[in-house]
Amino acid sequence: MCTAATYKTKDFYFGRTLDYEISYGDKIVITPRNYVFNLRCGDKLQSHYAMIGMACVMQDYPLYYDAVNEKGLGIAGLNFVGNAHYNKPVNGKDNIAQFELIPWILGKCATVKEARALLERLNLIDTPFAENLPVAQLHWIIADKTECITVESLKDGLKVYDNPVGVLTNNPPFNYQMFNLNNYMHLAVENRENTFSTELALNQYSRGMGAMGLPGDLSSQSRFVRVAFVKMNSISPDSELGSVSQFFHILGSVDQQRGCCKLGEDKYEITLYTSCCNADKGIYYYTTYDNHQISGVDMHQENLDGTQLIAYAPVKGEQIYIELVCQEKTHGCCDAAKSNGRRASMKKGLLFLGVTILVLGVLALLFSGLCYILLHGTSDAPHSFYHGWFVRMKIARIVGVVLALAGIVCLLIRAKG
Q: Is 276 annotated in the active site?
């Protein structure tokens, strides 16, 4: 079970959660323009748009879960078990296996409009990637900055739906998911008023009661309603940090925690990763179940004209920042503690400076006293001798007085703190 969403501020963002009980060694994979996709029905996809996304790489082939191309078009495949239906190859059609659909769309199309035109010739076939891998039953969300569609291959044909909410989960089919939103048209972000009865004095006793009735369970239909409500009412800055942060909050509303969806003995479905791609800039952000710090890969930092896949292992393990300078819980306390530290350091410096200057002043006065004793204890020395030591005595006395006063001033300043 998974959830996908779109979000637009100054830039366009596209991402999803992948909810499953095990990982297949997923990696952030960049497919450069000249990597060759050998399609199962004999064609080749080469000299295509570059793309980035999360994929399981098998036999040097990227099995993408979600990806965005260099033109800003995004697509994600989500489980659609029991409803997805694939066909045998048909002459005169573009016969594409389900695992080929993401690179086929992203390699050829720059916009949803171009994808719509390509889908008119599509025949999704039931060819597996490998004999030991069953054909994944999926449906897809495709979006750019201007529009969004959902694609479902059913027994009665290929369906392409406009997707005005820009979200997707799993079963039931998309048109049923959209109709189900009618049951929640009463949800609001504002405070509620009493419409129950004019004869009862009913009051709002808590914040957030406007969304009372919003589903909170992990079923796909409930997740569709919840993520649609959160996404459609989200507000954030236009900045990259503000937009990316808000996107992860949107998908965080449908996170799955280990222990809440049991599949069997010691098997639990969890949110293995959450992605958010800035489709305009080609930066793929992600978190994993065991690492909530947002990490990112910029496709434009790589050679997009290459022929080989470029793969990044996701960062795993929590990246926890511990404040070492100050462990108070608020910035105000932290600032006060830092200020106190600077004040203590300054007082220590003034003490050292004051004592040093005072000692030097005392030494200068002692030297002046020794000069005085020397002059009065010598009676037969030449005049030049008396003159030289007399000058030294005067200078030492002046310097000693000045230094002693300066040292005392430093100590007084320190004492007043």
A: no
3-state SS track over 251-315: HHCCCCCCCCCEEECCEECEEEEEEEEECCCCEEEEEECCEEEEEEEEHHHCCCCCCCCEEECCC
How far apart (Å, rounded) are the C-alpha atoms in residues 190 and 203?
Answer: 14
Beta strand pairing status for 51-58 and 27-31? Answer: antiparallel
List the catalytic residue out of 2, 109, 277, 371: 2
Q: What is the pLDDT of residues 280-318, one digit of tens each?
A: 999 999 999 999 999 999 999 999 999 999 999 999 888
| Burial classification of residue 228, based on how many CB atoms lie within 10 Å of its CB (0-12 exposed, 13-18 middle, 19 or more buried) | buried
Backbone angles phi, psi at 180, to 5 degrees: -60, -25
Question: For the chain, how big is the Rg over CA atoms in Å?
Answer: 37
The distance between the two most distant Cα atoms of the chain, rounded to a whole number of Å, is: 131
User: pLDDT tens for residues 320-359?
Assistant: 888 876 555 555 555 655 666 666 777 777 788 878 888 8
